[in-house]
Specification:
This protein has about 190 residues and is mainly alpha-helical. The protein contains 8 helices and 3 strands; from the N terminus they run αααβαβαβααα. The longest helix has 19 residues.
Length: about 190
């Protein structure tokens, strides 16, 4: 796996794996240990954004403590894994526990008048929508002929050059054998709407 992805550690209502008890949380180490490895890899070399974590879930805290201990041994000083936890509501005990290893943000701050779970969840949804918007390309339509009229004359010249390139690079089959550069170019062109 490379790049950014969404990882769900616990439960799946479609497969009858609802998490209801502490034993269900503990079972993740038996049934989904490779997923914890992905969490730890992101904490070591990337940035992990966690949404929906609870103090009753020891998985995230333990994974971060193991990474933090490794980094401390390697660096000889206290090191903090790279991650952010987004809480729906500000909870002092959860924040204190998680802040040892993460930057902790809450949709509801201490002085905030918002005190309903629904409003806090709405703020979390708005944040996630904004995050998705900021991380997406403004030109995902550029090579789609239906949207040619939306482009400036300079952008139309660029699109003409990229369209010629698209005819040379097979962008339709992402599994066709290509060089590393060829795969990167094909992915870039698909991201532009090819």
């Amino acid at each position: 796996m490379s790049g950014n992805y969404l990882l769900k550690l616990h439960g799946d209502i479609d497969h009858g794996q609802i998490v209801l008890s502490r034993d269900d949380f503990a079972a993740v180490h038996l049934l989904r240990r490779p997923l914890i490895g992905i969490v730890q890899e992101k904490l070591l070399i990337g940035h992990l954004l966690t949404i929906g974590s609870t103090v009753s879930d020891p998985t995230l805290v333990q994974a971060a403590e193991e990474v933090g201990a490794l980094l401390t041994r390697m660096n000889g000083q206290n090191a903090r894994p790279s991650g952010t936890v987004l809480l729906t509501k500000n909870d002092l005990s959860r924040s204190m526990l998680l802040s040892r290893h993460f930057q902790v943000l809450a949709a509801q701050s201490r002085g905030d008048q918002v005190n309903t779970t629904l409003e806090s969840a709405r703020r979390t949804d708005i944040f996630l929508d904004q995050l998705a918007m900021l991380s997406s390309s403004n030109f995902s339509f550029a090579l789609d002929p239906k949207y040619a009229g939306m482009l400036t004359s300079e952008d139309q010249k660029t699109v003409a050059a990229l369209t010629r390139l698209t005819q040379e690079v097979d962008v339709t089959d992402s599994h066709a054998p290509k060089s590393g550069l060829g795969m990167h170019v094909a992915s870039f062109l698909r991201d532009l709407g090819a």
